[in-house]
Amino acid sequence: MERNLLCPRFEKAVEILSKRWTSLIVFQLLSGPQRFINIDQALPNLSGKVLSERLKELEHEGIVKRVVFPESPVRIEYSLTDKGQALAPIFGEITKWSQEWLPVQE
Amino acid sequence: MERNLLCPRFEKAVEILSKRWTSLIVFQLLSGPQRFINIDQALPNLSGKVLSERLKELEHEGIVKRVVFPESPVRIEYSLTDKGQALAPIFGEITKWSQEWLPVQE
């Protein structure tokens, strides 16, 4: 019987985006470059340890970049690369779907 | 400091879609109603037990429906509801992103 196999690139994209917290971190960064503390505060249930791991993974995937500003004290900002910014339409569609189909939560 | 909190409906959507295998099952069902065995064969690394759990969860979320055809032997098909079908644009955007930004895998 013919198998309807998934495209490996599609599977890889789903794997990246499905990792716990990853999508919410990318979504948070869509609003612009931010310091670690800002992302941490926007996602109250996410521990600093996991945020740090996820940011490293996203850097490794080329989705997030970490920029060090040589000020005193040093300022470090995280932002999306072009590859990361290109995820915006996915989040736009998730937002639309959630507003149309999920109940308003109290 | 003002917190840039996420919309709970967006978070809920990400939670649903991020659950391991869920997105791939929904994607598979976008090609039309299917029997359990067909979904199972299309996702070779997914066990029947987990597929069965995920289909129940997706039914519970109103994303998948299970239709029993009273034939002999009985035929059971899984398909997307309108709410499930409305996820198509999200998967369209994931496909586009993966094709533009992820390397072709051998």
From TrEMBL, chains A, B:
Species in which this protein is naturally found: Paenibacillus alginolyticus
Protein name as catalogued: Winged helix-turn-helix transcriptional regulator
Keyword DNA-binding attached: yes
Domain HTH hxlR-type: 7-106
Alphabetical keyword list: DNA-binding, Transcription, Transcription regulation
UniProt xrefs under Pfam families: HxlR
Gene3D superfamilies on file: Winged helix-like DNA-binding domain superfamily/Winged helix DNA-binding domain (1.10.10.10)
Transmembrane parts of this sequence: none
Range of residues in the leader sequence: none
Alphabetical list of InterPro entries matching this protein: HTH_HxlR, WH-like_DNA-bd_sf, WH_DNA-bd_sf
Superkingdom per UniProt: Bacteria
